[in-house]
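seq/struct pair 1
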Amino acid sequence: FIQDEVEVLLVNIDNIASQTKFNGQTLLDGTFQNKVFHIGAYANETVSLDISTATTDALAVSSADLSTQSGAEAAISAIDLALDTLNGVRSLLGATQNQLESVVRNISVTQVNVTAAESQIRDVDFAAESASFNKHNIMAQSGSYAMSQANAVQQNVLRLL
């Protein structure tokens, strides 16, 4: 009975390996290789990712025979090696995930900084334009006042005459 359960579990492992997909791409059947993600402004700023095969054949656990003690011991050794292999894959995926998350955080900080800089530029332009408007307004008012004073002087001279 145990052998039957092990065989069902091995079939399930192969099913998981063949059916695990993201964005239409199978991840654990060995076809997710040489994937390059562009993560920066320059052409050489990339992250490469390869996910190795996680089938029972690739992990060398497809022929587990638990009918004898030596077969069970061999199966345990094979499973230990398979777990080590899978832990290595998980470690690689975790490191790549951390790298991508770091890039996302840096991009978010850059976006905030660019938005703040744009706001400061807009504020400076507004302040400069307000000052220029006030300067021209004062000059126009001064000119009008000077003209009215000049007209008043002429009228005073005419009155005196």
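seq/struct pair 2
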Amino acid sequence: MWKTFASLFFAVAVAMLGIGIITPILPLYVKSFSASGLMIGIIMGAFSLSRGLLGPFVGRLSDRIGRKRFILAGLGIFAAVSLSYSLAGNVWQLVLVRILQGAASVMVTPIAQGYVGDMTPIGKEGRLMNLFYASMFIGTGLGPLLGGVLTDWLSYHAAFAGMGILSVLSLLMVAVTLPPDHGQIRKSPTHRQASIVPLRQIAKHDAVKAILAYVATRGFWRQGFNTFYPLFAVSALGWSASDVGYIMSGYFIAGGVFQIPFGYLADRWPRNPQIILGSFAAPLLMLLVPFMRSFAGVMVVVFSIGMLSA
């Protein structure tokens, strides 16, 4: 189990590092096309819309066909998308690129998450799943820092190239180290037995409805921050792409680091109070961000938001 977990952990961390590279600079790059605020929102939102619409279908197919194949396909598309950003000639081409990137994303992180969930022993869900989430947060946390520096020192295109190189590296890691599953999930007394349950049946559970509502509402303020704060920081505060990268990295790294201790708490103490505390406190702190003018002040606030989001 641990060999497979380690393979997924490092592969996803590298893939998310590649995605994180473009987090602080993509809104600025889109703005260079003279895009309006609405168009920026459409371009950035196309990623999540594509991911949301394709998620259920890709997940079901991966259960039948095999998850490794989908992860490899997604990483391959990521590599191609990185080149497409530099080749895009107008905003609508960027919309198409974001749709493709969303499709690639749903083939990688959710599928890898399901892979880990299948092999997680009963009673250790919190600690192992949060440990896996740490790979995503740490990858996306270090990515903005790297992306901001590459943009300031070289160009936007250097950041996109970095995303492509890291996607290829992650693809090679998965191809070499992850054992094939062929759609078959192992069964053991300490693990969940694999079964394909209709989506309608899953959607009837109150817990699933609550989780979906939480994730949907969280997406509004998190994606709004990721999209428009870089523009605000550069235009209103006069910060560089590297400064924005530091802020975004602090936010994501805090979320990654605290995944591990909070995972242990989730296994030992009731989970609902922890979820309620984080889901209310994090967006309330986000209200302070537009009024903060000092770099240190913003860093403290976003670090706290990242910690509470864990």
